[in-house]
Amino acid sequence: MSDPVLTLDRVSRDYVRAGRRLAAVDEVDLVVHRGKTLGIVGESGCGKSTLARLALHLVPPSSGRVLREGQDIARLDAGALRRLRARMQIVFQDPNASLNPRWRVGAIIAEPLRAQGWSRQKRLDRVSEVLDLVGLPQDAVDRLPSAFSGGQKQRIGIARALAPEPDLLICDEAVSALDASIQAQILNLLTDLQARLGLTMVFISHNLAVVRHVSQRVAVMYLGRIVELASEADLFDRPQHPYTRTLIAAVPEPGRPLQAGSVRGEPPDALAPPSGCHFHPRCPLAQNICRRISPPLIEAASGHLASCHFPGASAS
Ligand code: SF4
Ligand code: MG
To answer: Domain named ABC transporter: which ranges (predicted)?
Structure first.
């Protein structure tokens, strides 16, 4: 396997809400290898975005370590951290909210370069390069975001993320606000850019079909924990965890997003997580042991991790 670009080592992130501890991310172990895409899938509120913020060091972990190329990010000095930040960029869900409507596209894309101290000429050259990379015309530099369609705006967001030459790109619901046909174009652009630039990607979405399209490995999150982690083929063809099987069964056809409420029952209250296996109130296979003992994330099949007392069991 190629070398690890990003490693989460027993990472947790707690928040206090109404005087109670909420574990948004709960003892997560993950490795993202160079040039590969790790997909992270789960319902809204499962901790996916907090995981992205931890990976980018926008929030520190409450416990555990976030490692970049084997180095603990928390131990870097200010200069090393500033250089590292340029090498990890994020593409957000809503380009309307993430692009300043009063700035011209050239200034938007060059902004991270200005922050890194690039000269004016280098900034202009790089903006021109990344416009080509994302398939936007050169005259975009002088126009405002409002002149562009939703898909083109997301290309601007991707161009801005690529400008400082990152090796790690985190996409948080990056196509979720787009129409299905535009989603496919942006997903193809991302996989093409990955191949051309050797990018490492973390692709976060509630939509299984889009995660499947871009990822080599996929992690399924439930209430702050990874409940299943496998290659894309193993996860979708041989899911081991009842939650994953429910998610897959809930997708009626390729490209159709996972709808809220497609898993029976409500997602549990993260402030009062269920005892034992967090999924037990919604699990068709739950037994007494599930209510008492939290199942560890262990190898259920070769290279295929699942946290379930009865991995691979079928409800029928
Ligand atoms: Fe269902 Fe029990 Fe497995 Fe949890 S441990 S997913 S409740 S069978
Ligand atoms: Mg989110």
So the answer is: 6-248
Measure the CA angle with vertex 166, ends 162 and 168; round to 5°: 110
CA angle in degrees (0–180, nearest 5) for 70-34-172: 95
Residue entry with tokens 């574990």: 23
Note residues around ion ligand 2 (Cβ under 5 angstroms): 49
- For residue 36 the two structure tokens come to 């590969």
Dist CA 106 CA 160 (whole Å)? 9
Burial class (CB in 10 A: 0-12, 13-18, 19+), 247: buried
Domain architecture of the chain: domains with CATH: 4-99+166-306 (3.40.50.300)
Q: Distance from the CA of 264 to the center of ligand 1, in angstroms?
A: 14
Quote ipTM for the complex.
Answer: 0.95
| Residue in 222, 280, 298 to alter for ligand 1 test, most ligand atoms within 8 A of Cβ | 280
Facing residues of 41 across strands? 205, 220
Q: What pLDDT was estimated at residue 304?
A: 97
Convert 200-216 into a string of H (helix), E (strand) and C (coil). EEEEEECCHHHHHHHCC
d(CA 172, CA 218): 14
Residue 289 pairs with which residues in a beta bridge? none
* Residue 286 alpha carbon, nearest atom of ligand 1: 7
Residue 299 CA to residue 1 CA, distance in Å, equals: 18
User: Ligand nearest 275 Cα, by number?
Assistant: 1
Distance CA 52, CA 191 (A): 19
- Regions in the chain scoring below 50 on pLDDT: 260-261
What is this structure's pTM? Answer: 0.92
CA dist 252 to 9, 37, 184, 247, 255, Å? 35, 25, 18, 10, 9
For 41, 127, 171, the CA distances from 51, given in Å and listed in that order, are 11, 29, 12
Percent of the chain with pLDDT over 70: 94
